[in-house]
Specification:
globular, Cyt_trans-like, 5-stranded parallel sheet, alpha/beta, 6-stranded parallel sheet, about 35% helix, 2 domains, about 25% strand, PfkB_dom, Rossmann fold, UDP-N-acetylmuramoyl-L-alanine:D-glutamate ligase
Length: about 450
């Protein structure tokens, strides 16, 4: 599958340094430069994020014959992106941010006012005709307004995702998805913003969908998730997997890329928006290459469990662990997990793999696969990490995890793990189990009905 990104590309340059004094000739901080980083911005960043997913990417953009344009060509080509450049009069746009201690002190823009790009190369029109999906990443500098490109995008049979800009043209008709953020949606629709943010997003999204003749409009709302407006009057609200306080610059590009890729792979629009919200959240959290994994999935695995246990011990805390199959998670499980978490500073769940459950309970179990069981457990606020094991018992995991407390819920006189836990001075604990709650009983009751 080839994704074709269309739009304005600019050069993002970050100048990092330290401020220790004020200039003697003006009330301004003096930045001592330490390092400089450069990356493509605008549609170039969208293409870069797509290439990191391992898919074939072509970028149709406009570049001037200057140093910034040459540097962008170098960066994009090195990332494996095929660049189809329209001639750009004037200078290639640049955004230069001066940073100290992670904070932006000043942004300097170069390139002058937008100027219409020149003729579209025939090869660019050919690549649009053969696209598996098209993402128009409009930054309001003229590429998305080019008549030949607009005609080619409109004629394409591939799904089109359009990321609009207030200074740019309207999307072509029949886009599969248009992705304004909340501020853009208000400005583009003329909505005064009366009522809640959700109500505003809903009104603006429906108004823009009808105006643009789009199949769907999704209004992105940062930490509040996204509001998807389709044919019906009731929107779909997609929350973020986990809030993050990271840098949001580029999150809109991550969102649009994930949506376009998902649509190209056959996803429903609602599924594509869910994947896009997760991808944007990961990007803001500082991991743009997670490809849309939910945040809690990062808490699953032996490496994460070991890292967490070491960190807690370094702080002088208590590591608590419990284990089980957790097939058809129910309130009895939840009571045990909450009681276990209250005994220390973290709770690590040792989860029987699918093969381990089959060996213990028969070929018709588990009903829920280990990936889903792990995700459900990791999503609970009382669980800090999950590690999956294939053996009949958790003892091999306990041998390297070495928890301070091993917990089981139920009516036990003793626990078989006591001997191994005592080797490093740990203790085993039994907590009450809610009467009448069990997976086996739930399955039997369901079969009777």
């Amino acid at each position: 599958m080839r994704l074709v990104v269309v739009g304005d590309t600019l050069l993002d340059r970050e100048v990092h340094g330290t401020v220790t004094r004020i200039a003697p000739d003006a009330p301004a901080p003096v930045l001592d430069e330490e390092r400089v980083s450069e990356r493509p911005g605008g549609a170039g960043l969208a293409a870069l994020l797509a290439a990191r997913r391992g898919i074939e990417v072509a970028l149709v953009t406009a570049l001037a014959p200057d140093a910034a344009g040459a540097r962008l060509s170098e960066l994009l080509t090195a990332a494996g992106i095929r660049v189809y450049a329209l001639p750009l009069p004037g200078g290639t746009p640049e955004k230069i941010r001066l940073r100290a201690a992670g904070q932006v002190l000043l942004r300097l823009d170069r390139g002058g006012p937008p100027r219409p790009p020149g003729d579209v190369p025939a090869a660019a029109l050919d690549v649009l005709r053969d696209a598996g999906a098209i993402l128009v990443s409009d930054y309001g500098r003229g590429v998305a307004r080019h008549p030949a490109l607009r005609a080619a995008v409109e004629e394409s049979k591939a799904p089109v995702v359009w990321d609009p800009h207030p200074n740019g043209p309207p999307p072509v008709p029949n886009c599969r998805l248009v992705t304004p953020n909340e501020a853009e949606a208000r400005r583009l629709s003329g909505d005064a913003g009366d009522g809640s943010g959700l109500a505003t997003a809903q009104r603006a999204g429906h108004a823009l969908r009808q105006r643009w003749q789009a199949a769907a409009v999704v209004v992105t709302r940062g930490a509040a998730g996204a509001v998807l407006c389709q044919g019906g009057p009731t929107p779909l609200v997609v929350p973020v997997p986990a809030a993050s306080s990271g840098d949001t610059c580029g999150a809109g590009d991550a969102f649009a890329v994930a949506a376009a890729v998902a649509l190209a792979e056959g996803a429903l629009v609602s599924e594509a928006v869910g994947a896009a919200v997760a991808a944007a959240s990961d990007y803001v959290a500082g991991d743009p290459e997670m490809s849309g994994k939910a945040a809690h999935e990062g808490r699953i695995g032996a490496a994460e469990a070991g890292r967490l246990a070491a960190e807690v011990r370094t702080r002088g805390g208590t590591v608590v662990a419990t284990g089980g199959c957790f097939d058809l998670l129910h309130t009895g499980h939840l009571a045990t997990l909450r009681a276990a978490r209250a005994l220390g500073d973290c709770l690590i769940v040792c989860l029987n793999s699918d093969s381990s459950v089959r060996g213990l309970k028969g070929d018709n179990r588990p009903l829920t696969g280990q990936e889903d069981r792990g995700c459900l457990l990791a999503a609970l606020d009382c669980v800090d990490a999950v590690v999956v094991f294939d053996e009949p018992t958790p003892e091999p995991v306990l041998a390297w995890l070495r928890p301070d407390v091993w917990v089981k819920g139920g009516d036990y006189d003793t626990l078989p793990e006591t001997e191994i836990v005592q080797r490093w001075g740990g203790q085993t604990v039994i907590v009450p189990y809610l009467d009448g709650r069990s997976t086996t009983r739930t399955i039997a009751e369901a079969r009777r009905r």
